[in-house]
Amino acid sequence: MSLVIPMVIFMQQRMAEAGNADTAKAMQAYMKTDQPFYGVKMPARKAIFRQARAHTKITSFVEYQRLVLWLWSGENREEQYLAMDVAEYYKAFRTREAFEIYAEMLSTATHWDTVDKIASNLIGPLVLAYPELEAELVAWREDDNMWLRRASLLAHLKHKSQTNVVLLTETILLLAHESEFFIQKAIGWVLREYAKTDPDYVRVFVATHEKALSALSKREAMKHLG
């Protein structure tokens, strides 16, 4: 019998026990969402996941997929956070096949707290490992879903010297006209991170495309370049 469901129930029960109504209300207000929270902060959530791992082993990709998606579909926001914790922890299952799991999560994510981690920590490494997945980023940057467009930028966030500069440049210039705060911020953020690898490129890029980039994007991009 699969131990996935008992593992999910165990974590849900522990989260409910550890929850705090005032903390839940504050977390919900901060994220400006109607989705309920248990009111469990990250250290306690991580501890609950450690407890769950201590008595339950995930030994197959199918179990991994079920565990991640079962948690992701949970009623409370922290269950989505747990789903991302689980997805990132079991490195052996973060294969090409896992992209479909992460894409499903991303397509139903509703704010930066989940979108950003999925894009940079889960999607990003797979794009490096399987370059054909860059085609997905190309599709996302033109999607009606603003969060997918943001993800098409943030998937590059941690690529450092392995960044596909041509693709990133094309994506930034395609999205630079948008007035949406979360797109402008993502453009600046990904440029700021890449500046740690190639500061001269970012300086020249911002100077060359000064009129195309928003003030927010330029400010974020140049934050540590003086």
Automatic annotation (TrEMBL):
Q: Which residues form a coiled coil?
A: none
Q: Which CDD domains match?
A: AlkD_like_1 (cd07064)
Protein name per its UniProtKB record: DNA alkylation repair enzyme
SUPFAM superfamilies named in the record? ARM repeat
